[in-house]
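Predict both folds.
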Amino acid sequence: MHLRYGMNPHQAARVSMPPGSPPLRVVSGEPSYINLLDALNGWQLVRAAAEATGLVAAASFKHVSPAGVALSGPLDPAAQATWLPGADPGPLTAAYIRCRDADPKSSFGDMIAVSEPVDVELAEFLARVVADGIIAPGFEPDAVGRLAAKKRGAFLVLAADPAFRPPEREQREVFGLLLEQQRDAAPLTDGLLTSVVNGPLPDSAVRDALLGLAAVRYTQSNSVALVAGGATLGIGAGQQNRVDCVRLAAAKAATWWLRRHPRIDGLPAVGGMSRQDRLNWQMRMADGDMTEGQLAEFGRLFPGADPVISPAERARWLSGLGDVCLISDGYLPFRDNIEHASRAGVRYVVEPGGSARSDDVASACTEYGITLVRTGLRLFHH
């Protein structure tokens, strides 16, 4: 099948389906190369998360890494007011809202993956957000019509085959070389979480750890996910060193939490301003790094509102973020990873272990009152 284009519009591309039943079929739209990479990784992630936790899962993918991943659960007041005021969404819609709310700046124009068939409620919600497509194990008849009409028919609708199981070995051609390896099929179960170095691991942290393990397995390495309440708050992806992964994930989690600050959450509505534009202004306030031009525009749009949260107030508010679980796809090599994590409300750390300085990492966890779990399983993904 010919694709719309390759990784870039000037590259022609096609895909060859395996004999027999393929892993997916195109219901509507025309996929690009990256669309399929996002969809296939996203589908594997939500299927793994749902199998590990027994809950509905959703993921928002951009450039072959998730911007957010979440399980079904209640919306907090800020997410409710932003995405679906006055409504009580079902599990599937709630899971997607929770994952999109994790990093709405990155989720703009995403590829969506959900673990359950798409119902009309989710289809109607998606009609009001900017997204490129969705992959799911099925669709209600009325849902397909609503989705296929999105983006004047360009919205991509893909049906995944839940019964498809990939071959045991996977191949990739790079610069004329054919690389082959055993597929990473190690099960993600709570049996990975039994080597607790110090401190208790409550059931809620077990759920968050399993979700995080599924997330980092399908995130470009090096990767770290911060998870709380069954949803990612920040994902650090594709970094060349571990501490930058932690710092990036922590910065995103801080932005998520600061968006709940009364002054940011209560930013006045402006007539004619889209939801995404208002979200962008809230995130700029949370980031605390507006340019001179943005400050001037803020003053014009929101007269009387102060765009600056003082350092002392930021620190006070951020101290309220807690019970966060950090999951790393590789071992944490130094204690500075723990020091940065502690500033983002991390109380549980799940990592493979095996660093030459594992004792230093364990000591830092004890010092900061953080529970440390070593899985013995590395989950690199490239």
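Second protein follows, with its predicted structure tokens after the sequence.
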Amino acid sequence: MERTDEGRESRGTGKYERLLLRCKDLAPVATAVAHPCDEAALGAAVEAAHAGIISPILVGPADRIHRVAKEAGLDVGPCQIEDVPHSHAAAARAVELVRAGRAELLMKGSLHTDELMAEVVKRDTGLRTDRRVSHAFIMDVPTYHKPLAVTDAAVNIFPTLDDKRDIVQNAVDLMRGLGVERPKVAILSAVETVTSKIPSTIEAAALCKMAERGQIEGAILDGPLAFDNAISAEAARIKGIHSPVAGDPDILVVPDLEAGNMLAKNLTFLARADAAGIVLGARVPIILTSRADNQRTRMASCAVAALYARALGAGAAGRGR
């Protein structure tokens, strides 16, 4: 088992390793890395490059990148470097490289997520599509039988129903790009019955009806489902819930960011799960890594993004509505 920076032990289950194995048959994906100016950020890019997953373009102050590389013992010789003076310029230039077609992926370095996303969502110079931008964790939970997406736990604080339609479709397209032919989506709430006292139950029911009407495509939805009913077929059976999703979801859709953030961190710190982060709904997938991530999680984030980028390029998933 691998120990993270915070002492957690990562229990590799082979789920991420299978994703990494699939990347071996693909050419490295050109990736603009915004401000990789600390050991964790630069190391993540270099590790993924050495594994043949990405071909990084390091965007930031060149002297600082070289200094960090020297101090950390990292070889950045094979990497392209775009010299810009500071993190804000790095975010803008990285987005520009994607718009110019020089990069198929965007990767967060040691700048704040908000700083990078501010450039991504700019109307005229960013990477917006007609989809709402959203975040998904692709989680390797040791007690669950397959990779599990949790969305949205990092970008949309209190999403509207229309936002949730895009959040669901973004996650569905991602999982289809990763090889899940028809993802099963559990729309979570506190209970499994629709009640006006809990608005998220009404939105869950509406999302399921939207899927029936073709407003959400390529997936099987059910909700509202409480977490136990979503994850455990036995819990659903005991409560008399007949669901094609219960016990086997590929995607968990949370009511809001607070619920998603707490769920993901509970799985990470109590169930020893790993959480690879990716932003969806922009022109290209965006890799989000954290200094707290262990090596396999950082590599998995890159692998998920690279596989999805290739699927998008092959027309296997939609870029917008």
